[in-house]
Design brief:
- Helices cover 5% and strands 48% of the residues.
- By secondary structure, it is mainly β.
- The strands form six sheets. Strands 2, 4, 5, 7, 8 and 9 form a six-stranded mixed sheet that branches.
- The longest helix has 15 residues, at 2-16.
């Protein structure tokens, strides 16, 4: 009896949490293939699954992906002059709930020119973990969608944003050191998002520090961080005249170490690393470079 009650109780808890409410686009709208879908947030949900299908019964799906956000731009190139249907369900406490109601949209061909990607260059390696993604302006377009994935087919999209600039800096703790990523951009008009650009890839550096010069410096040097003041990311450059074991720590005004930026053996050269102060309060901090032969400390200011 107790076992049956537990099963019933679990079923009620799993089934009873709210379904997402579809917000946009309006039901029956006409637009381009890369439609942006928006739905309401479900309390305690840690993930959502959305499905897009040309079959109202969803016997097959043209796109079936999970996302942490309450919006998503359809990535699959849908067929023009066809109708599609979409729905969403929320993941709460280890289980998916019921699907939302179903909405439809109609796809028409897009004449929007896709943006041309600029940087990081396709196939780049040693890229910062917070790269600045850039692309060319598309005439008469004021908004863009940038999407980042771990595979060239964009089946595992890890990040996507709609913005009104032709550049975007990836936020901290999104990309992993040594990871390979693919990105693409499309632009928007009143009917939706057009065709995506070419898909470019880059590899994030593996050590948390980037060698920025092929020459060998004549002496040790720790440069002023930039920008300074900063919020929350700043870059720190230093020179090594010979192979060295390098430590860079961040200290508060009492001298307590609050963050370790670098702890590694490096070859002679000029390097640049970055510090993310997102978890610290505004104030004055110090960063200290230590090798076997050299120690220097400089001040930086975090302003939030």
């Amino acid at each position: 009896m107790l076992k049956l009650f537990i099963i019933f109780f679990s079923f009620v808890c799993i089934s009873s949490f709210a379904q997402p409410v579809l917000l946009a686009p309006p039901n029956g709208v006409t637009g381009y293939t890369h439609m942006q879908l928006v739905w309401s947030k479900v309390p305690s949900a840690d993930m959502y699954e959305y499905q897009v299908s040309s079959d109202i019964n969803f016997s097959h799906t043209d796109e079936d992906l999970e996302t942490l956000d309450t919006f998503r731009t359809v990535l699959t190139p849908l067929v023009p002059n066809m109708s599609y249907y979409w729905r969403v369900r929320a993941h709460v406490n280890g289980s998916y709930g019921s699907y939302s109601s179903v909405r439809a949209f109609n796809v028409i061909p897009s004449n929007i020119i896709p943006p041309a990607l600029v940087s990081p260059a396709n196939g780049s390696s040693g890229v910062l973990s917070t790269p600045l993604l850039k692309w060319n302006t598309v005439p008469e377009r004021e908004q863009y969608a940038v999407v980042v994935a771990t595979d060239i087919n964009f089946t595992n999209v890890i990040y996507g944003r709609c913005i009104d600039t032709t550049f975007y800096e990836m936020p901290p703790d999104t990309l992993h050191l040594g990871g390979q990523y693919y990105w693409a951009v499309c632009s928007q008009d009143s009917l939706g998002f057009g065709v995506f650009s070419a898909k470019w890839s880059f590899v994030v550096r593996t050590t948390g520090v980037e060698n920025i010069s092929k020459g060998i410096p004549s002496q040790y040097k720790l440069y002023n961080n930039y920008p300074n003041p900063f919020n929350p990311i700043t870059k720190i450059k230093f020179d090594l005249p010979k192979n060295s074991f390098v430590k860079i720590n961040v200290l508060d005004i009492t001298g307590k170490v609050v963050s370790e930026i670098l702890n590694a053996n490096l070859s002679a050269g000029s390097y640049e690393t970055e510090f993310n102060g997102a978890n610290l309060s505004s104030g004055i901090y110090y960063y200290r470079l230590e090798t076997n032969d050299f120690v220097e400390t400089k001040k930086m200011i975090l302003v939030k």
